[in-house]
Amino acid sequence: MVVSYATEGVCSKEIKFEVENGVVKQLAFVGGCPGNLNAIAKLVEGMPVEDVIRKLKGNLCRNQTSCADQLARALEEYRSR
Fold it and tell me: How many Å separate Cα 18 from the centre of its chain?
């Protein structure tokens, strides 16, 4: 199941991802800086959700967040369901 998360305070407008057995399987950012965001997606696909949250949460760019931080927040929200 693809999960969509509307971002706040960053150039990317949305994050779409799939999680299977606690592991990020698919990840795509809509909008934002394609080179950096595609790199983030490649790096975290195959990682456990908890590891992604631990590594990316609090990684700030501007507006007290970043696309990486927004991904961590999206995964936290997903995890709390």
Answer: 11
**Residue pair 42/28 in contact by the 8 Å Cβ criterion:** no
Helix (H, G, I), strand (E, B) or coil at 18: strand
Q: Any bridge partners for residue 4, and if so which? A: 16
- Start-to-end CA distance of the chain, whole Å, equals 14
Cα separation, 36 vs 15, in Å, equals: 14
pLDDT tens, position by position, 11-26 = 999 999 999 999 999 9
The C-alpha atoms of residue 75 and residue 4 are separated, in whole angstroms, by: 10
Question: Which pair of structure tokens corresponds to residue 36?
Answer: 């950096």
pTM for the full predicted model: 0.96
Copy the structure tokens of residue 17. 């991802």
